[in-house]
Each structure stands twice: as C-alpha cells, then as structure tokens.
C-alpha cells in the first residue's frame, strides 16, 4: 500500500530532552528549537569556510596584537583590568568563535585554546560565585561582557554535557543577585534562561523576569522595551540594539507571554523596514543609519543581527527571519572578509571602489582606517565577533519541534545527526552547493522505521519549486513558509527540493538599482591594485593589512528600462571555492552604460571632521604632502547627473556574487531613456 504523504504546517510547543537524555524545559513556548552544538556538521563549501577561519583569524587572532595577544580572561593581565574593561568583550567574542568553530570541525587546536579560558573562569569563582574578571565598582555596568563569554561556556555544555557549567552559572547569577539593569547588562537574561532551561531552577526564571521589569522601568534609550515598539527609524548603536532586541523573543520562549515577543517583533520590524542595505545587512557605522548607497555596516552587527534573527525564528516559527539570515551570511559576511579569513573590514559598504587606510567615507571617524581590510581593524570588537558569524549559521541550520521532528531552516551542505526522543538515531544529509545550486537533496538514514514530520523551509524568493520524495512529486500545503512531509521514514529515503533562482531588479530610491538571483546579490567586481601596508603595526607577512585601489572601470549605470531581467544571460562555471575573487561560480551579463563624469571623490584639503582626530590628522597630512589628495568612494549620481553623464553607448558587463568582491559597485545608477 502506498505511503500517504501529508504536507501541513504545525505550531510546535512543549517539552523535550537534552543531548544526553536529561529532561529539560527546552524553551516550552518556542515554535522551534535549535539542536545542541555538534548535532550539525558542515560539509562542502561550508566546511571549507570554517577551515579557512581556523587557519586564519579564528585560530590565530593573537597576530592582530592587543588585546588578543594577552592572557584573555586569565591572569596575569597585561594591564590593570579596571583600566581597560572593554578588552573582555573583545576577547570573549573570539573565545566563543574559537569554541564553536572548533566543535563544528572537531578541531582540538581550537577547542583546547577556547576551553583553557572557559575552564579557568569556571574553576575560579569568587566567594559569592561570581565568574570572570573584577571590573571594579566604576565598571560594574560592563558586566554584560559575561553574556558574551558565557556563550562559549554554553556551547561547551551543549557539546560535552559538562554540568559544572550549569552549576557555575547558577552560583554566578543567584549568589550576588546583581541587578543587571543598566547599559547592556540585561543581556545576561540569555545565559540566565539557558541555565534555567538546563537546571529547572525557577529562581532563575524569576530573576530574569525581575531584570526585564527593572529594565522596562529605567531604560529611556532607543533600545528600551517601550521604544522598541515605536514605528520609526532606529538611532541607537547597532550592537546595543541587536543585543537587547532579541531578549523579548528569549523571554517569550520560556514564559509564553505575548508582550515579550511583541517587543522583539517590533524591534526587528523597525530594522527591516528602515535600515536594510543591498547586501542584506542593516546600515550601522556604530549608530544605525539610512539606506543610501554609501551607508555601511559594522562587522560586529553581521554576527549580532543574525544571532537575534535566529532567536526570532525559534520563537515565532516564521521563515521570513531565516530568509534575511541567509542573505546576510551569503553576501555581507564574505564581502567583509578576505577569502583566507586573514583580514576584515570594520565598516563595509555595498558600493566601495577603494579600501585604504584613509578611505572611510562614513560620517563616523571619516577618513580613518575603518574600511581597510586588516587583521585587527580600528576597533577590536569586530576582529573578535566576526569569528562567530558562520559557526552560528551552521549550528542553527537545523531545528526541531517538541517531538524531535527535524526542520531544515537554513540551507547549505551539511549533515544532521541526532537521537529522537523515542530512541531512533537519525541522520539527514543535505547534499547541495546551495546557494549556487538549484537543487537540494536530503538523504535520510534511520536506525528503525519511524513516522515523523520533516519540515522544509520555502524561502520567500522561491516562486517556482517542486518537492520530490523518492522520485515522486508531492504537492505541498504552505503555512508560515514551511512545508511538512509526514510519512514512515526509512534508510534510503530521498527528498529533493528543486527550484529556479530568478534574476530580479531591486529599486533603491529613484535613481539606484541592484540585481539579485535567489538569495545572492550581484555586484560589479572591481579589479584591485592591492598593496600591503608594511608600516601597519597590526600587519605581518602572513596576516597583512591591505591598501586597495581600483584597477578597472567601475563607473557604470544599468540600462534595464526595457529589459526582462529574468532572461539575462547567466554564465555557470565550476569552481573549487564559490567565494573566490577570481573564479566565479555564477555570473550575470547585464546591459550597462558608462557614466563619464562619475569619478572617484578626490579630496585635496583636510575635512573638518578629520582635523578633530589627531591620529587621522597626522596620516592625512602625510598623504596630502606626498600625493596631494586622498581618494574616497563617490556618492551615486542623481537622476539629473546620470542624464548628463550618460555616454549613450550600451555595453555588457558581468556581475558576480557580492561575497566574491572586495572592491565593488552593487547599487548602480538607473539609465532611463
């Protein structure tokens, strides 16, 4: 008798079991739950990305100098703790990134370095149970740095089941009962509720509620619970906003109270409505900005934005957040780091035709090194935080419902291994080169035949798709972006998601347009005249800081007024690594017109904002004395300017995946006849 395949959607709430069979609360009101660290293993290009991280900054960030060349969270400290409390934020990011990358790769070099830090801290609490460095009375509001460090400890617990982590967290939070209601201190709610989830101690839940209540009463910033609910552009510091915005979603997963979820939903709606740039990331040069083509984003926010959206996916069960995560990870992330993961930008922009130690065109510290690719940019938090972005993506690719039914939430080559609550061992292998392939296969192995539901996310951009089970096409019922296949599963079953990635044009205001294909944004790759800045103290032969100047034409507008962009020619080639900056997997040929007078912004006098910073002033003075000018990326021309610049000669240029580019134009002038 033929198996009946039912496709439906399920709202999932309830209890579950931990990795080691210990009963836990498992976020009782969450619609989805992530698997423990280690349940998902990367394959294909995802694994190579992590291996490049290991050989690059993730495994060697001490090459970037202070604070990564210190003893990190272990004494003796190279400088008085109270004199530089920020170092503990910066190094905690790195420790967490090392731990997660190491666990995913089963790499002992990484895990040993990270666990050395974790073990020391948890083995040396003070009398009250407090874990970590003594920040001094004047810096107590910086106790939010424990949130960052404890994420590494949480990853270790999920991977190893070391219950000393949970015991240490309980004593830390319940020993002194520090209020945690200023600056970003309330972000400790994340670790408190993780500990509650694993211990069941209601005192932790009550403590989290009290912290949230105190936060509501005292915070008047743009990242307060009350102001998160206001529909207007964000003015807050980006990392602060993201770290606090997700707390409502986390509270909801343990309480079921709608007021918490509504806060986070509204907070992220504000970002998605007012601040998302062409590469999927929200604008943020420390403070959040608008969506003009020259607005940029901070490396830290790639990690913190997607981390928050992963919690929103779990809390709501809605796939729209996963769509945004993929766009950021497939575009903004590889576009902000070098292919070998040995250098990154502090600020990165969809349009950047130059990336040097003077080229930061943004308002915040204009003319600084913020847009240069280097091992440890101008601010150290980004060098640490960027190591967490891809590991977090991989860890959260697969989620499950209350009954242990698997959900493919984020796509890419990977393997899920876990034990269902009823005892069956399940392996699901995701075979694909997505996002470059138009096909994803899921190969199932299971220790015994079992009826369960298998959830497939259907991305919002995926208009035409087919689901094929063991060679037979099935007709899905879609609800909240998921199709769910329910049948008796056995080893050898195969599910295929087949789709077409259509090319589309995206309008940015009246005179800007960009090109997307599926989750990939396309850009003009500008050839680089690349030099190593040998005088940079944070640069070395193996981990250099770069000065990049344009070495090919870039001043184009796109002539797409009467063109069916879905029929533009695509060129597909086989590549060893899809994020290569010289051999591109999928290219798109587009009609373009050169804009004669759209030229690099050449500055011959020191701007007033540069004069206010002594370090920048010295570097600018030297450059102007030697060359007579400093170059920056120019603003996109206005409609009127485009008409005047239009040479009238159409030619075809090739656009490549955004993540393959370092110098690029992504938002082009719109050529209108």
Give a quick precis of the structure.
By secondary structure, this protein is of the alpha+beta class. It has 19 helices and 30 strands.
Descriptive notes:
With 673 residues, this protein is α+β, with helices and mostly antiparallel strands. Strand 11 (425-431) and strand 12 (439-446) form a beta hairpin. Helix 5 (145-160) packs antiparallel against helix 6 (164-176) and helix 7 (189-199) packs parallel to helix 11. The protein is globular and about 70 Å long.
List its traits.
single chain, alpha+beta, 7-stranded antiparallel sheet, 19 helices, about 20% strand, disordered N terminus
Computed structural class: alpha+beta
Uncertain residue ranges: 1-23
Global mean pLDDT: 92
Proportion of beta-strand residues = 15-25%
Question: How helical, in percent, are the residues?
Answer: 25-40%
Cα-to-Cα separation, first versus last residue? 63 Å
Anisotropy-based shape: globular
Topology:
Blueprint: E1 6-7, E2 16-17, E3 23-24, E4 33-34, E5 40-42, H1 44-55, H2 57-60, H3 86-105, H4 108-123, H5 145-160, H6 164-176, H7 189-199, H8 202-218, H9 225-228, H10 238-245, H11 247-255, H12 258-274, E6 297-298, H13 299-316, H14 320-336, E7 347-348, H15 380-385, H16 389-395, E8 398-400, E9 406-408, E10 414-419, E11 425-431, E12 439-446, E13 450-457, E14 465-469, E15 472-474, E16 482-489, E17 494-499, E18 503-508, E19 512-517, E20 520-525, E21 528-532, E22 546-550, E23 556-558, E24 570-572, E25 586-595, E26 601-603, H17 608-611, H18 614-626, E27 630-632, H19 639-645, E28 646-657, E29 664-665, E30 668-670
Parallel strand pairs: 9-13, 23-30
Antiparallel strand pairs: 1-16, 2-3, 4-8, 5-10, 6-7, 8-9, 10-11, 11-12, 12-17, 13-16, 14-15, 14-17, 18-19, 19-20, 19-30, 20-28, 20-29, 21-22, 23-25, 24-25, 25-28, 26-27
């Amino acid at each position: 008798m033929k198996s009946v395949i039912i496709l439906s959607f399920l709202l999932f709430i309830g209890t579950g079991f931990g990795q080691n069979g210990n009963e836990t609360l498992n976020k009782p009101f969450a619609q989805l739950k992530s698997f423990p660290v280690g349940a998902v293993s990367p394959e294909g290009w995802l694994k190579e990305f992590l291996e490049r991280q290991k050989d690059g900054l993730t495994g060697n960030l001490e090459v970037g100098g202070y604070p990564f060349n210190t003893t990190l969270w272990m004494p003796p400290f190279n400088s008085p703790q109270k004199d530089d409390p920020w170092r503990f934020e910066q190094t905690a990011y790195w420790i967490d990134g090392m731990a997660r990358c190491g666990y995913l790769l089963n790499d002992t070099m990484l895990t040993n370095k990270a666990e050395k830090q974790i073990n020391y801290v948890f083995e040396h609490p003070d009398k009250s149970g407090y874990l970590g460095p003594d920040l001094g009375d004047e810096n107590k509001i910086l106790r939010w740095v424990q949130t960052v460090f404890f994420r590494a400890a949480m990853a270790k617990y999920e991977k190893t089941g070391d219950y000393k982590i949970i015991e240490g967290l309980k004593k830390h939070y319940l020993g002194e009962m520090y209020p945690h209601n200023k600056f970003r201190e309330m972000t400790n709610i994340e670790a408190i509720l993780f500990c509650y989830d694993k211990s069941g101690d209601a005192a932790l839940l009550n403590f989290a509620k009290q912290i949230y209540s105190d936060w509501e009463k005292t915070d008047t910033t743009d990242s307060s619970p009350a102001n998160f609910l206001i529909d207007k552009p964000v003015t807050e510091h980006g990392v602060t906003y993201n770290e606090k915005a997700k707390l409502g979603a986390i509270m909801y997963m343990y309480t079921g109270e709608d007021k918490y979820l509504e806060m986070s939903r509204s907070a992220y709606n504000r970002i998605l409505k007012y601040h998302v740039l062409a590469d999927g990331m929200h604008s943020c040069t420390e403070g959040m900005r608008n969506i003009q083509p020259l607005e940029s984003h901070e490396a830290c926010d790639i990690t913190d934005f997607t981390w928050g959206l992963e919690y929103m996916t779990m809390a709501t069960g809605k796939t729209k957040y996963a769509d945004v995560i993929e766009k950021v990870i497939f575009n903004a992330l590889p576009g902000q780091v070098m292919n070998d993961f040995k250098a990154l930008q502090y600020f990165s922009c969809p349009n950047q035709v130059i990336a040097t130690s003077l080229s930061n065109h943004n308002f915040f510290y204009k003319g600084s090194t913020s847009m240069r690719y280097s091992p440890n940019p101008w601010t150290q938090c980004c060098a640490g935080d960027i190591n967490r972005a891809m590991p977090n993506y991989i860890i959260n690719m697969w989620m499950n419902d209350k009954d242990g039914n698997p959900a493919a939430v984020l796509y890419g080559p990977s393997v899920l291994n876990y034990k269902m609550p009823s005892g069956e061992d399940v392996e699901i292998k995701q075979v694909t080169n997505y996002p470059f392939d138009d096909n994803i296969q899921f190969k199932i192995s299971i220790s015994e035949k079992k009826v369960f539901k298998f959830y497939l996310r259907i991305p919002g951009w995926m208009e035409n798709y087919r689901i094929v089970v063991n060679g037979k096409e099935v007709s899905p019922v879609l609800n909240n972006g998921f199709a769910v296949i329910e049948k008796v599963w056995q080893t050898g079953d195969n599910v295929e998601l087949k789709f077409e990635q259509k090319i589309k044009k995206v309008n940015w205001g009246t005179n800007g347009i960009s090109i997307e294909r599926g989750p990939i944004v396309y850009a003009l790759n500008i050839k680089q005249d690349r030099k190593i800045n040998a005088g940079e103290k944070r640069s070395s032969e193996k981990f250099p800081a770069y000065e990049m100047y344009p070495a090919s034409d870039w001043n184009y507008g796109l002539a797409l007024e009467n063109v069916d962009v879905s029929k533009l020619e695509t060129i597909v080639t086989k590549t060893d690594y899809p994020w290569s900056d010289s051999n591109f997997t999928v290219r798109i040929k587009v009609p373009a017109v050169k804009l004669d007078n759209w030229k690099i912004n050449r500055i011959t006098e020191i701007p007033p904002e540069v004069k206010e910073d002594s370090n920048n002033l010295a570097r600018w003075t030297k450059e102007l004395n030697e060359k007579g000018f400093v170059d920056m990326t120019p603003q996109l021309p206005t409609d009127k300017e485009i008409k005047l610049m239009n040479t009238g000669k159409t030619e075809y240029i090739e656009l490549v995946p955004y993540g393959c580019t370092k110098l690029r134009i992504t938002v082009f002038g719109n050529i209108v006849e």
